[in-house]
From TrEMBL:
Organism: Pseudonocardia sulfidoxydans NBRC 16205
UniProt protein name: Extradiol ring-cleavage dioxygenase LigAB LigA subunit domain-containing protein
Pfam families recorded: LigA
Domain Extradiol ring-cleavage dioxygenase LigAB LigA subunit as annotated: residue spans: 15-77
Higher taxonomy: Bacteria, Bacillati, Actinomycetota, Actinomycetes, Pseudonocardiales
InterPro entries noted in UniProt: LigA_sf, Xdiol_dOase_LigA
Amino acid sequence: MTMPLESFDPQLRANDFVQDLKWDEGLRARFVADEDAVLAGYDMTGAERAAIRERDFRALHDMGLHPYLLSQLARLVFGTGENAGSSTPATALLRSLLGDDYDRYVTSRG
């Protein structure tokens, strides 16, 4: 796996989308109500839109989404959790990034 910023592509349009989603409560409400319509309003590739729809954080990472924004997207689409590292957003992000290594990672942490 590459280091987090090695894959970062500041030109990736999904970066703008996640920033907007993070800061605009109205956009978040529209996203919950009609995700496809909101995604269609952004100049992203089909692959970016598909990865967001599928919650494929690994694909977004590989395309160049900033690592911080990956975690923010997980938090925004799954809600926040209080158990650091074990919340639904954190688990979804780790599963997507680690793939087949996820179970090994969880086991190694006790």
